[in-house]
Amino acid sequence: MKRKLTAAIGIAGMMISIAACGGSDDGDSAKGADAKELTVWLTVDAQNNWPTLVKAADKAVQKKHPGIRIKHEYYGWPDKNTKLDAVLATDKVPDVVEMGNTEMLGYMVKGAFAPVEAGKFDNSGAWLDGLKASVTYEGKTYGVPYYAGGRVANWRKDVAASVGVKTPPKTYKELTAALDKIQKKEGGKFSAWYQPTRDWYAAMSFVYDAGGSIAKEDGGTWKGSLSSPESLKGLTEFKKVVDSYMHGDKTKDESDRYIVYGQGKSAMIFGAAWEGATSADPKNDKTGKLKDNLENFVMPGPSGKNMPVFLGGSDLAIPVKSKAQGVAAEWINAFTGKDGQKGLIAKGNLPNNKTDLATLKDDPATAVPATAAESNWFVPMAPGWGQVEKAQVLQKMLQNIGTGKKSVEAAAKEADAAIDKVINTK
């Protein structure tokens, strides 16, 4: 499903009054258990694609609380947080709000959301690691995973077949061997693998595959770890990919990758699961050949295992100022619980838990994204991570590496220094 997560949190200075707004440290699941009104904020994804699931959750809550009024507001991703930041400083907050999982941390650090008891929500014991991490801060849970979105490799079957490759690669060695043949046949103006240099989601997959990380915590203090031997190994392999197969603009990010892919000047991408299909849309396919020629496959990693992928998705949280926290928790469980997950899966989403994810591996239509999502990573849950993203530390490092402006070692060391300056700052 096409959906772009807001990666940069950028909420410094927001919600001045949140810290003084009350709410116990341990959360109060009974608070607002008898509320007569409930306001739910979701993105337009729910409004457009699964409105019946919203109605089903409403009915479940209304059955238990006769007469309760449930109001829904829907927002586009670019607009939601601006509106949310404004109302969180007032007493007129929504009771449930949808957040992109990379957006959660900044709000948890600021004390915007009420803690919840994870055990009261269906499938909480099997939540996907990346989603569980996104709702956890300093040992407490501040939200409930809603659904997930993974990343996969996608290539053109016709281009692969032109060099004698008829099946997707199972190993990294098979992948690079096929790409070498494609690159040699198509020439220097063609990108056997269109891999934008500033795409830190892909680059960090190489880092985590090599056993590295963006940052590590030691004794309550976070430090950048991109210059560790393991991280350098991953970054070096990423640079090799960019040098060998990426012959487009090496200062670009991934935002228009699906458009570039649709122009027919590349044979493969590694990105969000929706990107291949979107490239094949007649509006984007300038070749007229992509509709039946694109194939998703699980990205193999240089380590010999499946490449760990960034796990995107959405969470649902309860603002700490909500006067209906108890009912809000019930609505969230009705919406994201066992029946809700079945409905979300039917609409093409990945579930929020490993149990349901495992069942998708048996269906050819969902096996690739489900298998890819099993191995995943998430951003450091450090108080100043939002400032790291806002400063585009990783993107700048990768551009310096990809363009050759700096060596891998020098760029990584510089990035670690930039991370260390802000990552522990609330």
UniProtKB/TrEMBL annotation:
The protein's matches in PROSITE patterns, at most eight in alphabetical order, are given as: PROKAR_LIPOPROTEIN
List the GO biological process terms: maltodextrin transmembrane transport; maltose transport
Its domain of life reads Bacteria
User: Where in the sequence is the signal peptide annotated?
Assistant: 1-19
The protein's UniProt keywords, in alphabetical order, are:
Signal, Transport
Q: Kindly give the InterPro entries that the UniProt entry links to this protein.
A: SBP
Single GO term (MF): maltose binding
Name a GO CC annotation attached to this entry: ATP-binding cassette (ABC) transporter complex, substrate-binding subunit-containing
Q: Which SUPFAM superfamilies match?
A: Periplasmic binding protein-like II
The record's comment on protein family reads: Belongs to the bacterial solute-binding protein 1 family.
Known PANTHER family for this protein?
MALTOSE-BINDING PERIPLASMIC PROTEIN, MALTOSE_MALTODEXTRIN-BINDING PERIPLASMIC PROTEIN
Q: What is this protein called?
A: Extracellular sugar-binding protein
